[in-house]
Design goal:
single chain, about 180 residues, alpha/beta, 2 domains, 8-stranded mixed sheet, 2 helices, elongated
Length: about 180
C-alpha cells in the first residue's frame, strides 16, 4: 500500500467517525433520535393554555409520552404526541389537561378505557377536545369533595366579616360627620 493510499484511508476513517459522532450527538441532544419507534398521534384543539413541547402525557401518574410539537393549522392548534409504542390507547380514551404543579405546569392525563378493540395507530388524529381540569394534578376529586363544604362555609364567613367591617366603617364615618 502506497503512502497516498494510507492518506485516503485515514481521511475515510475520519469522515465515517465524524458522521457517527454527529448521529450520536444529535440523538443525545434531541432525546428522540433518528429511529424513534414511538407512536405519533395528533389532535386539533382550540385552547392549549399551558401545554408546550415536552408536556408529559400520563396514565395514572405514569408518563407514557410527551407533546413533541405544536403548530397552528386553520385557526386551531395541531398537537403532535409521541407515545410509547408499547402503550395501546383505545379510541374511547379521554384526554384531560390538568395542573402538574402549583407553578402552572400542565400535563395531559389519559383515561384509557379498555372497552373495545379499536386502538389508535401511529399517524391517527385524536377526535377529542381537551377537558381542562385546573387542579386535577394537585388535589384529587375525592379530597375536593371533602373540603368543598368547608371552603364554601369559609367563603361565607369571610364575606360576612367584610360586610360587617363595611357597616362599621360606615357607622364610624357617620359619627365623625355628626361631630
Amino acid at each position: 500500500m502506497t503512502q497516498e493510499d494510507k492518506k485516503y484511508k485515514r481521511v475515510g476513517i475520519f469522515v465515517v467517525g465524524a458522521i457517527i459522532i454527529f448521529f450520536v450527538g444529535y440523538q443525545f441532544i434531541s432525546k428522540e433520535g433518528f429511529f424513534d419507534n414511538n407512536t405519533k398521534l395528533y389532535s386539533l384543539a382550540n385552547d392549549v393554555s399551558g401545554i408546550t413541547t415536552e408536556t408529559p402525557i400520563v396514565i395514572n401518574g405514569f408518563q407514557i409520552g410527551k407533546v413533541s410539537d405544536l403548530s397552528l393549522k386553520k385557526g386551531k392548534v395541531l398537537i403532535e404526541f409521541s407515545v410509547d409504542k408499547e402503550i395501546k390507547l383505545t379510541k374511547s380514551a379521554q384526554f384531560f389537561s390538568s395542573a402538574n404543579s402549583i407553578f402552572g405546569d400542565r400535563q395531559i392525563e389519559v383515561k384509557n378505557s379498555h372497552e373495545g378493540e379499536d386502538f389508535y395507530k401511529s399517524g391517527d388524529t385524536i377526535q377529542t377536545e381537551f377537558i381542562t381540569n385546573p387542579i386535577g394534578g394537585i388535589i384529587d376529586s375525592t379530597l375536593m369533595q371533602e373540603i368543598e363544604p368547608t371552603l364554601k362555609e369559609f367563603s361565607k364567613t369571610i364575606g360576612k366579616a367584610l360586610q360587617d367591617y363595611g357597616e362599621e366603617d360606615k357607622d364610624a364615618s357617620t359619627k365623625n360627620e355628626e361631630k
